[in-house]
Amino acid sequence: MTRRTCSSASRSGPLQARTLRVGALDQPGFDALVRAGCPACKAPTLEIKSFIDRAIGMMAAEPTDAGRWVHDGEKFVDGTYEIACASCKHVIWHDDMCPRCNTPGALHKALTTTSQLEPWKRCPQCNELSLLAVAMVPATAKWPQPKPQPLAEYPDEGVHLVAYACDDCNRARAAEGCPLCGAPSPLRQRP
User: Fold this and answer.
1) How far apart are CA 4 and CA 1, in angstroms?
2) What is the pLDDT of residues 109-121, one digit of tens each?
């Protein structure tokens, strides 16, 4: 699936069209599915499963809090891998590709493996113990009032660090390749 976007080589240069790969669902497709409700039992409440961004405070490579969501609505839609009826459990939509890089069949690996990126116990530059990490976390939310709830917490299976930075000197490290399934770079752009 592609979405047309505009980009420019410089701020004053002409706009040029380019193609941006998106996740399995775009916003209009997502909206159509959730507004229709369950086709099997006609219930309006749906359960949506998505990989979304969560910030996690860390001390000596251990979480210091449960984290907080740092995604927007577009990233929630982009990370969606399943929509099912909350009442009868009928699966309305499912895709087994990796929600981050679109590798076919890689969703199982993303859900059943631990993070490939290991946090520092101490910053190698300034020796600080505190880090701020961003992870992609599997979550569930009920439609029409989607408030995500994590399905796992770091360091559980399914939670994958994307990047982290030292609280003191801002030295940072990011995952190489896809943080969810390990597919090689380059990764597709996210909305």
Assistant:
1) 10
2) 999 999 999 999 9
